[in-house]
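ARCHIVE CARD
Drawer: 12
Card no.: 0347
Subject: one protein chain, sequence and derived structure
Cross-reference: see card 0346
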Amino acid sequence: MRRTVVGMIVLGLTMCVVAQAETLQIEGSTTVGPIADAFAEYFKKVYPDLDITVKKTGSGDGAAALVDDRCDIATMSRFMKAKEFKAAVDGGVFPVAHVAAMDGVCPIVHPSNPVKDLTTAQIRDIYMGKIKNWSQVGGPSMPIVVISRDTSSGTYETFHGLVMEKKEMAAGVEYVNSNPQAHARVKTTRGAIGYVGIGFLDRSVKAIKVDGVMPSRRTIASGVYPVARPLFMFTNGYPELGSMVHKFCTFYLTEKGQELVEAKGFVPLTAY
């Protein structure tokens, strides 16, 4: 009898632990991905029973996942489109935006390329196919290999709006699915130009000035850099205070959260 009682107590405690275990599904932007990964790694240490997953397939996929109730948090490097918001509301989901950090969309070239500065008009002409050789913008006589993010990307949306002014890109533009792929393509191609979030800059590629302004934490935070943008975490309604979703979405406001944002090369909101 005693063993039975003890067994029931153990079973009850086990069931309580299982009941308390929480899950957190995060999906969306490859740009916001490093921030979400860093936050998730920290949360796993603080909350060892938390089952947390981060999927990085693009801002559009994040919006769709939130609309379909397949994630708790949609990470997006652009604001949700009107048609996405409408689809969400029609399905009983009310998206609320949390700005987690600031970012700059940075044109990059191969480190061997001597070109250091382009105007937005020159970059636009390159992507429209009007400028096809680096010699036309003060570089060597070398064909330009044009790399862009795919059209479902939030990074593409920002670039398409702020640099392209909504104009169509040339037929020969090569599209890639993520910031790491754009980075890798430019790193290994001498004549390439691409664009990535500031968190993906390193010595294996060269960031160039846009309209005379180099992308940096200072120029992005001050609004001087012309291709800057906020990075978002969207939730279904404002999360319940004290919930794991609330803790995750407001973590960027803490000292540790700011430290992790900066460590990933992005700009904390507290920088301005």
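Annotation on reverse: Confidence is low (pLDDT under 50) at residues 1-20. The domain at 103-221 is CATH 3.40.190.10 (D-Maltodextrin-Binding Protein; domain 2).
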